Known about the structure:
Elements: E1 3-9, H1 17-25, E2 33-37, E3 43-48, E4 63-64, E5 70-78, H2 81-87, H3 98-109, H4 113-116, E6 119-127, E7 132-137, E8 146-149, E9 153-157, H5 160-166, H6 176-185, E10 198-200, E11 205-210, E12 216-220, H7 234-252, E13 260-262, H8 267-283, E14 288-292, H9 302-312, E15 316-319, H10 326-335, H11 345-356, E16 362-364, H12 369-373, H13 405-410, H14 413-427, E17 433-435, H15 441-448, H16 452-455, H17 463-466, H18 474-477, H19 488-493, H20 506-512, H21 529-534, H22 536-549
Parallel strand pairs: 13-14, 14-15, 16-17
Antiparallel strand pairs: 1-3, 1-9, 2-3, 4-5, 5-6, 6-7, 7-11, 8-9, 8-10, 11-12
Helix pairs in contact: 1-5, 2-3, 7-8, 7-15, 8-9, 11-14, 20-22
Amino acid sequence: xxxxxxxxxxxxxxxxxxxxxxxxxxxxxxxxxxxxxxxxxxxxxxxxxxxxxxxxxxxxxxxxxxxxxxxxxxxxxxxxxxxxxxxxxxxxxxxxxxxxxxxxxxxxxxxxxxxxxxxxxxxxxxxxxxxxxxxxxxxxxxxxxxxxxxxxxxxxxxxxxxxxxxxxxxxxxxxxxxxxxxxxxxxxxxxxxxxxxxxxxxxxxxxxxxxxxxxxxxxxxxxxxxxxxxxxxxxxxxxxxxxxxxxxxxxxxxxxxxxxxxxxxxxxxxxxxxxxxxxxxxxxxxxxxxxxxxxxxxxxxxxxxxxxxxxxxxxxxxxxxxxxxxxxxxxxxxxxxxxxxxxxxxxxxxxxxxxxxxxxxxxxxxxxxxxxxxxxxxxxxxxxxxxxxxxxxxxxxxxxxxxxxxxxxxxxxxxxxxxxxxxxxxxxxxxxxxxxxxxxxxxxxxxxxxxxxxxxxxxxxxxxxxxxxxxxxxxxxxxxxxxxxxxxxxxxxxxxxxxxxxxxxxxxxxxxxxxxxxxxxxxxxxxxxxxxxxxxxxxxxxxxxxxxxxxx
Length: 552
């Protein structure tokens, strides 16, 4: 769902770098690609567009203001852009796009525009009058933003690979700390990236780059705080959560003429589907629901997805990706990644989106329910654990004081590096926009203002979300968490893991050797299928790393 990149040049750089960066971004924006350069040639912005809000060519990015004083390129969606148009009603509008609304807000009130913008976004704005480049990322951080420096330039964008193209001196390096992260936890620990010198910008950041000397100043984009009202009962808080969820869902159904939702059968996706279905029926819209068909009928979340669809009265479209030539499909999915991810669930989501995108370019999901409403582990796991490694980044509204170290990592570094990254790369890299009502900043701020005992009322995980389904059977609400599995290991074994061994890059194999089990340190051609079954997780991680290394 769009991609952008850019750089500020200290001195003359590679003239073809912008074109290479745009080629990297093309998957994210199949509806148009464009490069803008300042008159002095020191600033370049590139953008690949997925046209959701406004398909008018005048809304193409980088978007140049009528007076030529501002140029904007961003990735994401401003959901309440229609309301903001009335805030800036004196504007002589050229387009119906959220892009122009953001540019108009910056012109009128500067950084304060982000106090009013509701959505998922990251971008860059060249401001001639203040002689500055402005980088910005929303507080929840669903859309990526990376920043890197070299002797010739400061580069930035929604893709590590695109930023790497703009920093010629970084094109061959791999950070061994990032490799260790991949094998330890499945993703590169934010704020670092797998490329030395390129960092992930923290959510809620506003960075001003002075065009005079390249110096940077940082400020914060914050979410409006919520005060906990101790006089309200659990039922009243559940009602307020439902109200905020509905408002968040309504925003994400704007500019969505063919609404679709991913219904896995979990609590989160069921609550989002129910909310969206009610709104669509009121508006006379037909909501389509999709779910990944289990490899074996009746296993994983399949029965719960079917039960949820039946109870809601919505037709469920089962999606089962073609299973022939599985190895080729896996490699193609990994090649769609920007930075590597080591969780096979990425392939499941990528495969589901690949099939559904034929019918819809905007999808609703239940992402964020576990992080906002304490769905992982047990209720006690979310309290103080002093031995946990502190997170290196923040993600979303301020965290409550009662939240322990493991929990803080779960809702910050892990949410950013795992959940956000997986959702963005499985969808945006295929030209699809994934919208998540449960990650709405206002809803998330409300949840984080609540005490632990309210979020886990009655000793139940996700009590406030389950309260939205209070009339549903206990067997549905309190079942074990089964996840979004695809039985990939066993399915691939049927073909003797065709393509896996051939997909391993020798340089990546050498980089990863300290973290590989002994059996995988042998040349890949010697790996037996039994060995891959036993060590599938590190083999998958190595394969993901290999595809990244091979792109240089």
